[in-house]
Amino acid sequence: MDSSVVVENIYLLVIVTLISVLQNAFFALKVEKECTSQTTQTSAFERVSCANRNCMDAYPTFLAVMWCAGVCLNQVSAAFAGIIYLVVRQKYFVGYMGQTSQSTPGYLFGKRVLFFLVLMCIVGIFNYLLVRHYGKDYKDYVETITSAASALLLIP
Amino acid sequence: MDSSVVVENIYLLVIVTLISVLQNAFFALKVEKECTSQTTQTSAFERVSCANRNCMDAYPTFLAVMWCAGVCLNQVSAAFAGIIYLVVRQKYFVGYMGQTSQSTPGYLFGKRVLFFLVLMCIVGIFNYLLVRHYGKDYKDYVETITSAASALLLIP
Amino acid sequence: MDSSVVVENIYLLVIVTLISVLQNAFFALKVEKECTSQTTQTSAFERVSCANRNCMDAYPTFLAVMWCAGVCLNQVSAAFAGIIYLVVRQKYFVGYMGQTSQSTPGYLFGKRVLFFLVLMCIVGIFNYLLVRHYGKDYKDYVETITSAASALLLIP
After folding, report:
1. Which whole-number Å values give the CA distances from C48 to C21, C67, C105, in the listed order?
2. For residue C134, which phi and psi values (nearest 5 degrees)?
3. Does the ipTM surpass 0.90?
4. Sequential DSSP letters for C98-141
């Protein structure tokens, strides 16, 4: 198995993963900055720390779903949904920091994107089982629908 | 490399991952609900938040070990152990929420399942090294033992 | 696709992942011990709990970057950098526990190793795109440089 054959099927996912890592580093630097600065109020530190924690809690779930969807069905749609998720996360983090503590956003975010990725996984597995047991391959058909459906994620 | 060949070797792991993601969503919704409801006591929110955090802390470890075990040795046993782990986690979460704060369950759970999965990884790596250096392949033999051993996880 | 061909390309990464899981278990046992012992001061529990949380926050990021770097470019360098990261993490954890609360180490650690792994990913993707669009493969050349560069991580 040549290494570049593997990379061909995952390089978009790797790129999205790298961007998410850079975003994690940005979040962590914000926490680090609030953590070490002596002059800030406690509430600012608590808010940025809480926003970072909520983002980190959801991170393994996001990575797992995106990679499964990308490997099982279609890496282009999965990577596109991943980018949308990162934009949503950025807005969530900035929104969380700017809020007063009485009106923080909820614990969850990016539900629609994650739901879309889970759906992609299910369709991918279902398609695989169809191929295996009935010899019918709807993959091209499904990939077209998936690409079209991923555009719907752009609707705010 | 055809995509369906890859999916064949991992589809059970993907299914278990999806179930774990749905369970994560269930946990997160519980936290969200306690977070937004104004009438609950602080202790209830703290308990559900703490239970969720303990589960999330262990989640990447679980995913990494399950996938390594599934890829290196045998996906059926790894997926089966993964399902057992999810059941244990569900019981831990529900148990944590129901407890009074004086008698919370510990920080750790599912130790036996994780230990089994780590053992599977070690055996898989060891078998690969044996094949590479001595040309002896005990994989069929090892897989039979692993399948039998995974049944032991059912003992409470 | 024979299973042992897959294992050949990832077995070092699996070994590092296993070591990191054992280290996670060590951290978790420390937390568990402080959590259940009634005689300890609150500050000791808070410190070990915070150190564990900081380590766990960075764990999915580390795993994702190490695996991407290992698959895209060169598993030997990635696994070596992974080992260095685990050593740094161990020192961070022990250092965190030993500190008085006034002088805790920061939130971040292992920045250099993670940066090196991210760089490996970027080089790997870039090399793949060069191969695909221009047919030039600098992989052997790049791998030699990477192996040499990974030695630089040993400098404290």
Report:
1. 18, 28, 12
2. -120, -5
3. no
4. HS-GGG---S---HHHHHHHHHHHHHHHHHHHHHHHH----HHH
User: Across the interface, do C72 and A36 touch by the CB < 8 Å criterion?
Assistant: no
Mean pLDDT of A104-120: 85
Q: Which amino acid is at A140?
A: D
Mutation target for B interface from A107, A112, A132: give the one with most B CBs within 10 A.
A107
Res A101 pLDDT > 60: no
pTM (two decimals): 0.89
CB C132 within 8 A of CB A5: no
Per-residue tokens: A9 = 């099927």
The per-residue pLDDT for range C102-124, each reduced to its tens digit, is: 556 777 888 889 999 999 999 88
> From the CB of residue B39, how many other CB atoms can be counted at a distance below 10 Å?
4
- Which tokens belong to C10? 């990832």
Write the residue in B60, B72, B128 that is nearest to C60 by C-beta.
B60
The angle subtended at Cα C60 by Cα C68 and Cα A13, nearest 5°, is 40
B99 vs A15, more confident: A15
Residues A44-61 pLDDT 10s: 788 888 889 989 999 999
**Chain A contacts in chain B segment 11-40 (CB below 8 A):** 11, 14-15, 17-18, 20-22, 24-25, 28-29, 31-32, 35-36
Q: Is the pLDDT confidence value at C1 over 50?
A: no
A135 touches B: beta carbon within 8 Å: no
* Higher-pLDDT residue of C125, C4: C125
The one-character DSSP state at C49 is: H
Nearest to A51 by CA among A113, A102, A104, A115: A104
